Amino acid sequence: MSVSDSCEAAPEKRTLSSLLAGRVAKRPKREDAGGLQQAAIQLLEQQQNICALLREVGDTDPWDVLHTRNGEQKPTGGVPSAASAALLVRELRRRAGRLGVPAAALSVTMVVERLKEIVGEGEDEARGLLTSSQRVQLCGLLESSRELLSRGALCPKLLWQEYRRDQSVPDLEVVCHLHFYNILTLRHIIESDEDARPWLVSQLKALCGWTPARGGEETKKMLSTVVGVLVGSGFELSPRPAAADRKAQLLCCSALDDLLFWLLDTVERGPMPRCAAAELWLEVFDASLCGVSASGEALQRFFTHSLTQTLTYKPQLTVSDAVALQNEWTFAKSNALLTSLFRKLAVVFGVEQLLRHLRQVLETREVNWKHVLCFLSTLLVCNPGAQLRLRELLSGLLSSAFEGYDLESMITAFLLARQGALEGPAVFPSYGSWFKMSFGGGGGPHAASKKSLVFLLKFLSDLVPFEPPQYLKVHILQSPYVPVKHRSLLMEYVSLAKTRLADLKEPVEDMGLYEDVSGEGAASLQGQAVQDVEKAVSLFESTGRISATVMEASIFRRPYFLTRFLPALLRPRTLPVQADARTSFIEALRKADKVPAAQYSQYVESCQKRRHEDAGAACSDTDDEPVEALSVQLQELTQLLDEASEGELSARLSRIAHALSAVFPGGPVELPGRRATVVDVILRSFCQCVINASRAKPPNKQSSWASMFVGTLLGNAQLLSALVHRLRDLFRNQASSLGAAHQLGLAALAVHLHAGAPRGPPVRLPGPVRVDEALSSALVCGTRAGMLFCVRLCVAALSYGICRGDAVPPEQRQNYVLSGFYKKSGVPAVGLLGALPAPSGGAGRLWRRHEDPLLSPAPRRHGPAAEELVYEMQVTDLRHGTARPGVCDLLLESASRRCASSAPAGGSAELGLQRALDAWNRVVLALPAALLVKVKPDGGGATLEVDALVEHVNRLQRRACSPVGLLSCHLTSHFLRGLLCAGARCGRPGEEVNNAWSQISVCCPLLLVSAAHWWERLSPVLSSLWRRLCDGELLPAQLQLLEDCRTWACRLEEGQLLPAAPAAAAALLLAASLHRAWRGSVSGGRGLSELHRQVLVFLLFLCVKDHLSSLLDPQEETPRGAASAALCSDLLLALVDCADWLLLFHPSERGVYQPIAAVMSDQFARLMPWAFYSLLLRQSDELRRRAARSPASSAPPSPATPACCGSSWREAWPNPSGERAAVIYFLFFWSGTTLGGKKRRVCFLRWSLSGF
C-alpha cells in the first residue's frame, strides 16, 4: 500500500503534504534542520516508492519528462535532448532540496526503482535474458542516466550500492548494459564488489546454459564483453600494481579458472550427450572473441595460463597408469571438447613455443597425463610441422636423461614418442622406428658408458610390469645396441620381457618374424603371419635365397614356424601357369626339408580343388557398419574442403584413418566384398574432392589436403595394395567406363601416390615395384580407345603434377612428375599440353601451363658425377649428421674433375667452365650441407678442416661468380650451413666454428665478402639452425661479428654519429658491410673522412668492381651502378693524396690489400684499370690533376720504366690530354704483370689515340 493510499484509508490523519507544509510554515530552528534532514533520508530508505511519494507531494513524476508510462517512449527515441535533460536535472535538484536530500541520492534511488520495475516485468526464469521490450526500456533508462551522470546529478558508486543491496545475485545483462553505457564499468564492479567472483561465475554458467530463441547474438556479445574484461584485468601487466589492482587481478584469474574447471569437469564425465553450455563457453577461447578488450600480450598470457591449468588439472593418474592406458588417449578417441579446447589454446602460438611450454610444465608441475598426451596428439594431428619439433624435443629429453640419469626425463620421452606413434605413420614414425633410431646404433646416448647402458636397461626393466605387450615385442625384436662384453645385461632384460609376455598369454613364440609394431597395437596373429610371409617372399625374390630369419625360425622358433608361418604360406590358391615368387619360395623350403611332406601334400590337393571351384564366389561381409561410418566421414570431408583449415582437415583425416583401421585391421590381403566397396568409396570421394577443390583454385594454389589424404592411405599397407590393384584393374579393363571427372581425379591420385611413395610400403605385383611403374604398366595402348585413354590420363597427371609442383620447394618438384607416365605419353609434355584435348574443357584451362621446367632438364641432370655422389650418399650414414671424412674430398675433387673436363680449349674455356660449374652447383645445393666441410678426428675430439672448401672457392667459384666477386645467396648459405652442421658434431662446437671461420676470413676473401653482403638474409636462417643444433646457444663469436659489422654499417648509413667499428673486424669485412649498406643509397659516402684508410681502399675496390660490371653489361645497369660511381668519386677524393689506392692496380706488391686478388677472376682483374680510367673521365680537372700528382713512393719504379714514368713523369704532360695519357700509361705500368710489354704498348696506343 502506497503512502497516498494510506491517506485515503485514514482521512482523519494528516497527509505527508500537510506535514511537510506545516513544518515549512513553522520554520524550525537551525538546530532542528539536521534532525529533519536525517528523518527525510530515513524515510527514503524505507523501501518507499519515490515516484508515488513525489506524486503525493503534488508534482508529476520527473521521469515523465523523457518517458511515458508502460515503457512507451516519446518520439525522442529515448535519447534526451539537452533541454529536456537540463529540465530533468533542475527538477531533481529542486525536489531534492524540498526533501532535504542530495540530488545524486534522489536520482540513484529513482533509477534503482525504475530498474527493478523493468527487470521485474515479464521475468521468465527459464529464459534468463530480458525480452526485447524490457531491453528497449532498459536502454532508454540508461541513456537518461548517462545524461544525469554527465551533468553531475548521478553517483555511479552509490547507484551500484543501492542496486546491490537488494540483489543477492545481480542480473548479468543489467551489469553488461551498465558497462556498455559507461555508467559503471565491469572492472570497477569487480574491484569494488568483494562477492563478485561467486555470482559472476554462476551467472556466466547460467548464461551458457540458456538457449533463447532470438538471444544468440546477445549471449555471445555478453560473453565476449565479460571475458574480455576478465582477461584484460587479470592478465595485463603493470610495472608496480597496487594492492587493489593485484586483488582484482587474482579475482579475475580465479573466475576464469573456475569456468575452465567447469568445462574440464564436463569433459571428465566421459561420453555423454551434446553439452550446449560447455560448447558455448568453449567459443570464448576464440582469439577474435575474447581479445576485444585485451591486448595481444594479455591474450597470450591468458592462453598460456589456461593451457597450464588444463595440463595440470587433477593430476591423479600415475606414470604407470599412463603407460597402461595411453592407447585410449589418441586424438580420434579423445573427447571432442578437450581436443577443441587444445586447438583453440594453441592458435596464437607456434609449435616450437607450445612444445617448449609443454616441457617446462612437465619439468616443474604435477600433470594430468591424459590431458598432456591428448594435447600432444592434437598438436601433431593439426600441425603437420610438429613432427620435426617433437623429434627435437625427444632428442633433448634423452640427452638430459642420460647426462643426469634423470628418470623423469626418460619416461617423459618414452611416453611422448609412443603417443606420437599412436597417431599413425602419416603423423609420426612408429614406436619401433623411433626406438631403433634412438638406441639401435653405437651412436646412441646409452652407448657412451656402461653406466648409461645399465641406466637404460634398468629403466626398461622397471616398465615391464606395466608395459602393453606390443612395446615389449619391440624391445625384444629391435633390442638396443649393446657391446659384446655387456651382452649378458641385455639377455637379462630379454628374459624378463619374455616371461611377462608369457604371463599375458602372448608368448614370444607367437611373435612375428619381421614384426613392426605400429602405434595402435600389434596385428592379429594370423595377420602378422601373413605379413611375415609377404616379407619373406619379397626377400627371396630379390636375393634368390631363403632369408636367415626364416631359417632360424624353422629351428629355434619351430612352434610359430609350423603353426603360424607355414599355414599362412601354404594357404590354398589357384596356382599360376608359370611359377611365381611364392611358388619358388615354397619349393626352396621343401627342398631344404623345412616343409613337412604331409602338409605339402595337403597344400597341393587344396590348390587342385581350388582350381575346380567357382572362382566367382566372393566372400561377403554382412557387417556394413564400418563401411557406412567411413562413407559418412568421407562425405563430410568433401563438404568441408572449401572452408576448412589445415588443422581441421588433419583432425578429420585422423578419424578417417581410425575408421579405415576397422576395415583393414591387418588380416589376409584378399579383397572381400566389403573391402572392395571401401576402395571404391575412397576413389569416388577423392575424385569428388579434386573436382570441388579445382573449381575454385588451381592445384598450385590449393592447400595440402590431397597430400594429407594420401598420407592417410599410405599408413595402411593392405589398403595401399588394394588401392593400387583396383586402379590397375580400372586402367586395364574398365577404362571406357571412366568419365572425365574420374580421369582427372585418378590422375591427381596417381601423382600424390607417387609423391608420397617414399613414406609408404612398397607395392607388390607380385614383386616390389614403384607406384608409377605399377600404374603405367596397366595402361594398354593396343587399341584406339586404349591409346586415347592413356594419352588423356598421362596428360592430366603430368599437367597436374607440373602445376602442383609450383607449391612445393624446388627440390621436391620432381616427385610430382611420374616418369612412367612421361614415357608412356610418347611425346614431349609441351606438345601434349598445347595440342592434345584434355579430358574435359575445364580441366585443360584449369591446369594448362606454357612451360615444363621439370621434364626437359631431367635427363641431363644426372651425369656420372651425380650418380657417383648419389651412390656415395647411399652407403654413408647421414641420418645423424655424420659422414665419412672422404665424402668431402670426393665431392670437391669430383667438382674439380668435372669442371676441368667440361672446359674446352681456346676462347670458350671460361664459358664452358661457367656452364659446368652452374650445373655442379645445382647438384651441390641438392646435397646435405654437412658434406661440404670435413670433420677430422683429433685425439679424443674432432676438428674442422676447411682447406678443401677454401681451395674450391678460390680456384673454381671465384672464376664463375655472377655478379663479379659475389657468390649467390643460396650457395653462400649452403657453405655456412655446412660449416655449422659440421661444427655441431665436434666436442666444442663454438670454438671449432670460430677457428674455421677465422681461417676462411683470411684465406677465402670471396666467401667473407659474400657472407657480409647476404648477412641480412642469412642471419635468421643460421641463427635458427645453430640454436637447434646446440640447444639454444647463440651464434659463435666470429659469425656474430658479421652481425655487428652490418649493424655498424647501417647506423653509419642512417646518418647517426660515427659509431665505433667492431674492434675485431678486418678492414675487408668492414668495407664489405659498408658496401652492402650503401649499395644503391643516395646518401652513401657520409663520414668517409673518419674511416680508416684500409677500409676506404677496400671500399674503393668493391665500388670499382661494381662499375666494371655495369660497363661490361650495360643492359643490366641500374641506379645502383650510378650510386657506385658517385661513391667512387667520394672515395677517390678522400684517398687522392695518398698512395694506397694505386696498390689496387699492382698485383705483385699489394701488401695488406692482397686479399682482393682472390675476390674476382684474373680476367676481370685485368680490366680494373680500364674501369678506373672510365671513372677518372667523369671527374673534374682538378681531381684528375691531384690523382696524377699522388705520391708513387709506395712502389718503386721498375727498371724497365721510361724516364717519364719515374718520379718526374707528372711533368711530361701538363695539358689535359697529356695528363690523361700519363694516367693511362701509369695504370698499365702498375699492372705490368697482367699484360706483356708488347701487348701493353698496343693497348696503350689504341686507347690513347681513340680518346677512349
From TrEMBL:
Pfam short name (any one): FANCA_helical
Residue ranges constituting the Fanconi anaemia group A protein C-terminal domain according to the UniProt record: 1071-1185
Fanconi anaemia group A protein arcN subdomain domain sequence ranges: 625-824
Matches recorded under InterPro entries: FANCA, FANCA_arcN, FANCA_helical, Fanconi_A_C, Fanconi_A_N
Fanconi anaemia group A protein helical domain: residues covered: 526-607
Domain Fanconi anaemia group A protein N-terminal: 166-505
A Gene Ontology biological process term: interstrand cross-link repair
Residues in coiled coil: none
GO cellular component, one term: Fanconi anaemia nuclear complex
PANTHER family in the record: FANCONI ANEMIA GROUP A PROTEIN
Protein name per UniProt: FA complementation group A
Organism: Gasterosteus aculeatus aculeatus (three-spined stickleback)
Lineage of origin: Eukaryota, Metazoa, Chordata, Craniata, Vertebrata
